[in-house]
Amino acid sequence: MKKSFGAKTLVFPTPVWVVGTYDKDGKPNVMSVAWGGICCSLPPCVAVSLRKATYTYGNIVERKAFTISVPSEAHARQADYIGIVSGRNTDKFADTGLTPVRSALVDAPYIGEFPLVLECRLLNTIEIGLHTQFVGEILDVKAEDSVLGERGLPDIEKVKPILFEPEIKTYHGVGRLLGHAYSIGKKTR
Amino acid sequence: MKKSFGAKTLVFPTPVWVVGTYDKDGKPNVMSVAWGGICCSLPPCVAVSLRKATYTYGNIVERKAFTISVPSEAHARQADYIGIVSGRNTDKFADTGLTPVRSALVDAPYIGEFPLVLECRLLNTIEIGLHTQFVGEILDVKAEDSVLGERGLPDIEKVKPILFEPEIKTYHGVGRLLGHAYSIGKKTR
Lengths: 189, 189
Hints:
The structure is a homodimer. By secondary structure, the first copy, chain A, is mainly beta. The first copy, chain A, has four helices and 13 strands. Chain A has helices spanning about 55-65, 75-85, 90-95, 155-160, and strands at about 1-5, 15, 15-20, 30-35, 35-40, 45-50, 65-70, 100, 110, 115-125, 130-145, 165, 170-180. In chain A, strands 4-3-7-10-11-6-5 form a seven-stranded antiparallel sheet. In chain A, strand 12 (about 165) and strand 13 form a beta hairpin. The longest helix of chain A is centred in the N-terminal third of the chain and has 9 residues, at about 55-65. The radius of gyration of chain A is 17 Å and the shape is globular. The two termini of chain A are about 25 Å apart. Strand 1 (about 1-5) of chain A pairs antiparallel with strand 11 (about 130-145) of chain B, so a sheet runs across the interface.
């Protein structure tokens, strides 16, 4: 029996991604987002949605670029802090001890300590409602050597990304391997 | 040391969501997607991106509605199958034994057996590249009684949603609780 919960942003999984930008004075800033996802394969694009009130919003509008740094489980406290305070009032890199690394490809910084990074050029800005969606073309994906697995690719079990639970408001890790895509379903019939 | 992987849709986590639609003859169809995410809190909206070549694409354009049914770990094989074949050639509900349930709110069916369901009215259609992004306004979220937890809300550890690994192409479950959001970060300073 299904129970109705009304019009809510309640779905699983949603990510914990840290969006990196420069402000007008060149100060690096980061904010944590859960509203986002891949939105196109060609060109490869990722979307993140932000409220206009955020410091990052103005930075993306001005610099036309952002990065996504994917925190690992070990960075859960830092990622949460980055989602609580505003870069308008503090220097989140100084506060957390994380290192801003200037992207060589786009006008935005990423977090040196985080294992997986996407560097994005702003492609499209879409007003939806309270949130504005920024579509970024992914120009490069970078990953730490220590998180590479099969075929030399980043391995989700080594990256250990964080999941956000948007109503109960908890963070979870990644669990066990369930099977291979485009493979396990062949046995359904 | 970070290694560069080029312009790729490689990020974690990405979801496994099953998009439900009716075709022009009223036949229910489902397809699995990994390109999607919440994109606005008010109105509550979720985005999914599809190639024009998919059967679901034409269905959404025609019916202006879709649902998202979130599979549980136990449905991994069915969700994979739903992502392999096209509704143009087969009846995926008949093939998998899953039950199409007509939404009372939007012109689209959802999967009765899946624990968490979003019913969406098409709000916006955004051409990005190979993929078209459909923004759906979430009119209702429904969840099985059996997956409810704290405060009567759907619990990610009971829903057991599936994560898709877009390059190695594997499915993973949800892991352990890492902490509470807007809370664990307060101790960073």
